[in-house]
Design goal:
With about 120 residues, the protein is mostly beta strands. It is about 5% helix and about 45% strand. It contains one helix and seven strands. Strands 1, 2, 3, 4, 5, 6 and 7 form a seven-stranded antiparallel beta sheet that branches. Strand 4 and strand 5 form a beta hairpin. The longest helix is centred in the first third of the chain and has 6 residues.
Length: about 120
């Protein structure tokens, strides 16, 4: 398979929807996704996998039962499997999410955010 580079800025410029991740690369069985977020997402958890959030631009708060983690540009956090969490952003924020292919972004919560 030929090497293919991806510009995160170019990928993010291709859409305006919030909370709708787009796959920009793959690593073994994992997908690298870019997403624009604003407002609150649903409380959820992933029982079978960890999830990595990397802020590209903006500020992301991830609420957990133990408290909140606030990430700025070029900051990252790994949410361990089974930890209930809710991402939120007061203004539009661009992220990369790394998780196994096929993971439903709303975890066990289901519903309309299921993308």
């Amino acid at each position: 398979m030929p090497l293919r580079k991806a510009s995160l800025d170019d990928q993010l410029a291709q859409f305006t929807e919030h909370w709708a991740p787009r796959v920009v690369g793959r690593l073994n069985d994992y997908e690298l996704k870019v997403v624009k977020v604003q407002g609150e997402f649903v409380w959820h958890q992933h029982d079978d996998t960890d999830e990595v959030f990397l802020v590209i631009d903006g500020q992301l708060t991830i609420d957990t039962p133990e408290g909140a983690v606030v990430l700025g540009p070029r900051e990252t956090v790994t949410i361990p499997r089974g930890l209930r969490h809710r991402p939120r952003a007061e203004r539009e924020t661009a992220l990369m999410i790394i998780e196994p292919a096929g993971v439903v972004n709303t975890g066990e919560a289901g519903g309309p955010e299921d993308r």
